[in-house]
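Need tokens for this chain, all 1504 residues.
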Amino acid sequence: MLTDKSRLQSCLKLGKVWYVSNSFLSLLTLTILDRSQDSRMGGDKSGDKEASDTTGDFSQREDGGIDIRIAEEEFNALSRQLTAISERQRPYSDSKDLEKGGEESANSTYAIICPRRTMHINELASSTSMSASPGKTCKSKFPEIYVGTFGGAIIDFFLTPFLFLWSLVAPLFPSKVLTTRPILHKSSGSLKPGEMCLVLGCPGSGCSTFLKTIANQREGYARVSGDVVYAGMSAAEMGKYYKGEVVYNEEDDRHIATLTVAQTLGFALSTKTPGPNGRLPGLTKTEFNEEVMGTLLKMLNMTHTAQTLVGDEFVRGVSGGERKRVSIAEMMVTRARVQSWDNSTRGLDASTALDFNKSLRIMTDVLGQTTFVSLYQAGEGIYDLYDKVLVLCEGRQVYYGSPKEARAYFENLGYRSLPRQSTPDYLTGCTDPNERQFAPGHSSRDVPCTPEALEAAFLSSAYGQDLLDSLGKYKSHMETEKTDQEAFRAAVVADKKKGVSKKSPYTLGLMSQVRALAKREFQKKMQDKFQLVTSFTLSTVLAFVIGGAFFGQPLTAAGAFTRGSVIFTALLVTCLDAFGEMPMQMLGRPILKKQTSYSMYRPAAVSIGNLLADLPFSATRIVIFNIIVYFMSNLNRSAGGFFTFHLFNYVAYIAMQGFFRTFGLICVNFNVAFRLATFFIPNFVQYAGYMIPVDSMHRWLFWIYYINPLSYAWQGCLENEFMRIQMTCNGAYVVPRNGPGFSTYPDELGPNQACTIFGASDGSDSVQGEAYLDAGFSLNASDLWKKCLVVLCVFAVAFQLTQIIALEFFPQYNNEMNVNIYAKESDDTAKLNQKLRERKAASAKANEEAKARAMEIKPEHHDAEKADTKSESTAADAPTARHRKTFTWEGLNYTVPVVGGTRRLLHDVYGFVKPGTLTALMGASGAGKTTCLDVLAQRKNIGVISGDILVDGRPLTSDFARGTAYAEQMDVHEGTATVREAMRFSAYLRQPYEVSQEEKDAYVEEMIELLELQDMSEALVMSLNVEARKRLTIGVELASKPELLLFLDEPTSGLDAQSAWNLVRFLRKLADQGQAILCTIHQPSSLLFESFDRLLLLERGGETVYFGDIGADSHVLREYFARHGAMCPSNVNPAEYMLEAIGAGVSQRVGDKDWKDVWLESPEYQVVRKEIDGIKARCLAIAEPDRKTLSTFATPTLYQLRVVIERNNLALWRSPDYIFSRLFVCTFMSLFVSLSFLNLGNSVRDLQFRVFSIFWVTILPAIVMSQIEPLFISNRRIFIRESSSRIYSPYVFAVGQLIGEIPYNVMCALLYWVLMVYPAGFGQGSAGTNGTGFQFLVILFFIVFGVSLGQLIAAISPSIQVAVLFNPPVTLILSVFCGVTIPYPTLISFWRSWIYYLNPYTWGISAMVATELHGLVIQCKSDEFAVFNPPSGQTCAAWASDFIGYYGGYLDNPNATEACRYCQYTRGDDFYTPLNISYGDRWRNVFILFAFFGVYAIGMSRCY
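Here are the structure tokens for all 1504 residues:
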């Protein structure tokens, strides 16, 4: 075991090196060297100088944003505090270099907070190659992947047996090698502890792959060859024993939205806190965690957010920048040695992005870590924070070295640098054939242009040679020097808690991990109040409904069957409530993947932790449910009876919860899990012993009963109840008996009468419950504990083990799609795509020629010519004389309700957007940029808006939304549509109806070309990358040809610098043509910023800081700020500087006065007010157009409906999993039910089985509901975006969703009907074959009713989680009160008087039962007769004639004088007539069911 001192010494020694490469012999080596070891390893002096320079320049990084110096002081303050504790308790025996230079405190802190922080993990790689399957952006031509369809799914299903057989013999034949392509090529580099590397490259250049490789994440690639070595340790060893030391943070921030910042970090700390050997003596875990969390929050300036929810797109929480800092803090807690950050500033404004990178700088410097970051739009201030820069071009390394020398290197190659172009943009542009420019006197003939040539140029340069030399020396050093490795391994072991294996990659043991996960899950449930209250409320209400339905069960023969019914119903509700666990297991997969990759916990701990955290909630909910149901229904009122009932019920719930969770874990998506569950759920219900007694089960299927956990639970609950009761036989269970108008028979059970209940004795009116169980179900009460409970517990434990196995060995992480999926071309689209390709080639050729001509122009004349060209373009594209409207807003305020009152988000905002201008809306995170845009675009539906929003000085009209376009930040589209289809849909419904479809199609083709989406015109939206989706979002809005205004929310987020520039250049072109544009913009370069005409700048609280012109070179804006004390340096981006000047992010503002007050007192403010007044006066002088011609929508309702239905049909056709799953479920459920009721005869039991078979139809709506709700809620999200632009009406959306489902539901109904009626032998009654056809109509109406009911529930539910909570109670209420579970005569009058008639199932089931049983001749089997002896001297017919004449039935031996055999039914009509069912009402009943479908459909449409 290492002492604290030895750990500190090891902290100063260890170094790091990495290495990655590509196919053939690709070498990517990154060596992370210790600065103190350069001389020993023969490192070059430039490395020492660079390290020195980095340290020396550190103070220059402290201005603005997060103060690095202060952050380090916060960290060192904790260091001194904890070191003082260390010194008091354990003095060092000697003092060496540790104590020199005042480094004792810092180094001691490393030993306390992160004992292995400064250990150098050397990653040394040789010949690492990354290869991928087709589809990941490459130059080579690979077969395209086409979208699956419903038709293809049907074909695949029938081919499955043959494909399976082929898979068995295929290995015997030669196989075709899968075509792959390299992603990363030969690359090498060196990075030291405490240094940061910026990875630059165009989209598709391999930046993300590089970062994942550095973090040792290799899944998803066809092949990774070569070595990645960390401090002499292989990648395999690191992945197995130390995987938490190298981590990768993806582009999106993935956290649990309903946890607070403190809870999120607290959980991370609880899993990464070092054990006693890794902490100072006397320092408890709680004290350690509190100190570290406080320090982290102070360092990142997030103390005020500790108790704020993290939030996400749907849960209000911290801002985007603060959420990024939560990710940083979480990564810091991991204490990982190597960290990779993939484009983590997406969506952040310039100041917050700078703060984010400064935070990384702090983490790297303070903890001595190694950080790799890829950024798409990095400003100069961000670029200066990095120690090294790596430039990739199509997977090839074209530069690696000092950021200060990178620009000069590429300029020396012959590339031209544009004025005010940031260095990252310039470096990336040099690798982009469309962006790069050659210096005067150079061309592609003498400048390396291809990736191969650029790579060769770098390797042959002095930078490349020095790098390879240093790597060779370091590799030789690592082959002999093992001290670093040993110290690292020892420090890792010292970190572990007591009892944790040395080979385990985790800090905590399994039980500690479970404890932390259970606590987190408990917190998450407690803070999700809405779902918690909803689940408890629904469960309690359902308990009262069931208890009321079976209220006061009598201790008579009439209560025997219904007691079994209430027990089975309660058990079914409890167990099937766990069905909602299945989709829940799929929602948290991204977080599970991230945190397990951080080695916070092992996957198996999740299932145990979730179980323990759920116990208090589920136990409380179920005990409340059981108390209500048990005592309202008058089950045996004893403590033993209730607690035994509750025990079996709850253990069954735990078992089924584990079952459904297992399916949720092993299946790739919900549809697959849904199909698999179909094999089990019907059989679980049917073979529990309630519907079909064991002795009536077919011999080839009865084994299901013995592997069914529900059967043991139901058996135990039934035995528990009936072993405690004794029933009296009376009423309808006595034969023969008196009826109205005759009193032939004794009122009490006599010797010449019989009791028809199971277990009855001759002449006795008392029936023991145990005898009833034995005779009716072959159950023995002695099995209650020794068999039923034991087996049920075994199932519960087994399903918990299956969860652990699934998580550990078969994890499903829903890896994001990295390939484009295409729709197959039609003849028309093939011609259009060919034209696009030809025009693209011609445009590329023209650009090359123009670029060549530009190279001949002298640099000093180039900018002037460019300006002249822009002026000419502007003049040529000037708008025509047609009047365009001006948009103004005055005194705009927006207030929203919050807990405890209201909050103002916007305050007295003034501004305008004129036609032909491009206006930027900027501000820090939380300043209200998107809020302002939403308010102006009329997208807010909560809160109070005050002020004037005018168009041409007049209030907004009903066609305002139609005349504007809003490109939202979220990029919400119909995922199964192609790019062309998505844009056509917008054009068809948003352009005027009078415009022909040909013109709309032609305009869409122009948009595809302008947005450079030619190669993706047939790609499905769901497979597009971030950049393409952003382009599509803008294209969809532009396809509408907005007449008034184009709003864009962060259109450049997620784009690289060149794509962002192309996009803004395109917007500039639109503005020059007369379009008015207002957009929020993040992280603009100075060149991009100059493209805007005006700026609206907001600060926190929605206060205006500036509104006015920007000017050439931003001179107007710079002069305004300079006049008030904020002088922008000439080498600083004005867009970044102005945010820092006003105190955006966490930086201090320039000046003593608030900039909003400066603005209100400025003459510019008065000019804006006067300009708005002038605009109103001029516009009001123009005659107002005729308002009668105004309409909310551009097209008629019928046309909207046709286009929407076409899109929905196509979407469903391209969603084979969704449709095929429903078809599969309906087919196999009907098949399983039919196999259980195969070839039904004419006995009484067969009659009951016919009714049960029909009753299964009531499950069809439940199936449809559970599947349709997630899709509907997803489509509703698309509709909300589209309805904001008044594309189509809510009624069109509702009807379109409904009609699109009908064709497939007809197929489902047909297959269910065929497999139900013919195998079971339906149609033997008077209705005959025509009756079976009628049954198809009822089944179809049941399914479409389920569609409308499911869509109605989804429409009123805020989320999928809430929607699925409604399904069990709704389904159960409808099933219980339809007259089957509780026959109509036994329903209490309260329910019978209203809910029975309001239940749609009542009418459907009655129609089916009457049709099937009408005229069906009944012949009792020998064990179905009621046997009694007539009085001496009378025949059976004489004794029972009065009884049979009134009640019906027949005597099998009418002339016998003893052992009379009575059958209670002659025909099926005798069965259903007492149940309030009439054959003559069947047509009326079925259309009442259809009427419910219509009512729910209308109700669903009214929700919007």
